[in-house]
Structures are given as structure tokens and as C-alpha cells.
Amino acid sequence: MPRVILLNPFVKHYAGSVFDLNEAVYPSDWDVDERNLEKQSRFANKIYLLPDAGNGRSAELPVQDTMLCSEEIFININIKNGPCRITAVKEHPIDPETIQLITERFLKVQLEGTLFPFNNNILLLSTGEKKFDTIEIYDSLSNQKIQQFDGFSDTKTINFQEAYPGFYRVLFFNSQMPVLELSLFKNFPLVVSPIKYTNRFQCIPTVW
Description:
The chain is mainly beta and 208 residues long. The chain is built from 1 helix and 15 strands, in the order ββαβββββββββββββ.
């Protein structure tokens, strides 16, 4: 699994962001017709499939906008210490005919902590009578469920302190029906920028 540095701003991710991604592939508009393969290969630019472009939506990130991250950069650094960022909140109406489901009627979502280093807790405050009975957390890169919570009180904290940097989805259920979905990105603890005309990097703490 390549670890890459983003060289240029991309959608809602800033330059210097670091990602662990699956291997690069050809873009979705790649023509698989064997008669065109040789011609295409001369001009093809591979892409990484980015689970979340910082707005809760997946995107195709050109490999040419990244570089491989040296393993030495994060030696002796706890990569779990980066801050979290909520990138999107998506509603799933319980009743298909109910189209005016308002998140604030049910839940207030916020990140706990306002100063670096962030406390990587998502604080969930119930603001209505409706309760969530199940919460599931998924790794968006592998699409694997990694954690589940049953039962929901008026206040619930989901701790991402021990989570590795990456892309996550948090799904809320009521009576086995999805009601709400959060998209979340946990950063690496350093923003890494290559210094021009050298083999060195500028590294600063990630604050957002």
C-alpha cells in the first residue's frame, strides 16, 4: 500500500497532506479495448482512488499530483496523533416519504477540543426524542466494518485516538434502518512538503 504526499491542493485536501492508498489504477474512462491499449499507454496517467476528497465524496487523484512518502519521515513518530476532520454529514430518512428529516432534530455532532493537539473524540449529543440504537464504523478504503456500538444515551463519545490515519464512515441506525452517516478523515500528524531542488522535506504539525 503506497503512502503518498499530495503535491498540489486537491478538492478539499491541502498540499502536504499524506495518504495511505491502494495501488494506482487506470482512470475510469480507460478504454479496455486491446486495439487501443498501445496507443493509450503512451498518454495514460494512472490515478489513486481517493475514498474522500475532503467533501465526503470519492474522487480520482492523479498520480502526477503526488509523490511517494519516504519511510524515514515518520520514524519515531506516533502516526495516530493526527487530528480528525468531519468532511460530510449525510441523512438517510427512516421513511422514504419523509424528505424533510433535519439532522439537528436528532443529533448535534462536534469534534471535542479546539486547540492543537486535538482530542480525537467525536461528541454526539442527542437533541430529540429519536434515539439511535446502533453505530457502525467503517474503513472507507477497504469498506470493512471495524467497530460497532449498541445502544445510545443522550451523549455518546466515539474515540478515534487509537485509529490510524485514514478515511472512515460512521453510520447511525434506528431499528436496523440507516438514519445518518458521517464521513471522517483522520490526518497524519505531519504536513509534509518537498523543498524544491533538494531531497529534503519541510514537516510541520497538522492542526486541521
